Amino acid sequence: MSKVLGSVELAVRQSCKTGESPVWDAPRACLWWVDINGPSLFQLTPATGAVAHWDFDEALGCVALYADGTLLLALRSGLVRFDPATGGQTPIAPAPYDPKAYRFNDGKTDPQGRFWVGTMHEPRTERSAQLYCLTETGLEARAGDVMVSNGLAWSPDGTRMYHSDTRAQAIYTYPMDPATGQIGPRSLFAMLPPEGGRPDGAAMDAEGCYWSAQFDGGRVLRFSPDGAILEEIRLPVSRCTMVAFGGADRQTLYITSATDGLTPKKLAEEPLAGSLFQVRVSVTGAAIPAVAP
User: Fold this and answer.
1) Does 200 appear as a known binding residue?
2) Which of 120, 137, 230, 275 is the most exposed place for a label (fewest CB within 10 A)?
């Protein structure tokens, strides 16, 4: 039996179509996240409550940090380096897919600062999405056989990579060489029953436990390294999408959510759908490094 954790608070009231990719920016003491289909980028400064946003003209899958304060954005057309101070964009790598059928989805840096990003097959009829790693020569495909690439996280020592396929209800792990970023064959970590939601975005804590947002399940699950469900956080919305640890002590868990696909009746029942939530937890989150130069 899993333990139900403390009360969830509203951090920012919004109506994001697909809120996603929260990441804590320690130097600026702020949280970044995106609305994939807004498409928009958001910044929350918890100390003041100030929220800033930037709008884009194409789907924005995820965001990662550079040490100089610029951001890596995964736009439908490709990866760019974005300067929030000026709005300037510098191309990094073009999208390695047909943009009529695919887009970037979940992305994150591993413990060594390598940026990984997955894709999704938007018609959701083929397990043809890929997981890529950004290298000096561009995006290299490292894993596939998924429909919606999601749930990226790494064990604290960097020897185990977690990756989910939301549509398949499955969370996988891969052995990984931290020095090279090469991964081995995947193993099934957890298969979730459909009535409890689908495994979406995730985060790792300092104890090696994996936190997974359950889309359409209205909850976040904490898994032990061997796949047992230890704890559960329940939300006032069904479509929670991703989690990230933040705050000075990395013990505030931020949770994004979505309105996309909800019926008018469901939206009326969930007035906070699409908002950003937070909850204090007793464990420290693993640090997410900046993108390696």
Assistant:
1) yes
2) 137
Architecture per CATH, 3-280? 6 Propeller (2.120)
In sequence order, which residues have a C-beta less than 8 Å from that of residue 279 and are 6 or more positions away? 5, 6, 7, 8, 9, 233, 252, 253, 255
Determine which one of 110, 165, 200, 205 is catalytic.
Answer: 200
Q: CA angle, corner 212, sides to 76 and 157, nearest 5?
A: 90
Contacts of 270 (CB under 8 A, 6+ apart): 236, 237, 238, 262
pTM of the model: 0.97
Q: In DSSP terms, which residues pair with 243 in a beta bridge?
A: 255
pLDDT tens-digit readout, 212-233: 999 999 999 999 999 999 999 9
Q: Say if residue 37 carries a ligand binding annotation.
A: no
Residue 57 annotated as binding? Answer: no
Q: Which of 13, 97, 115, 12 is nearest to 59 (CA)?
A: 97
Question: In the chain, where are the structural domains located?
Answer: 3-280
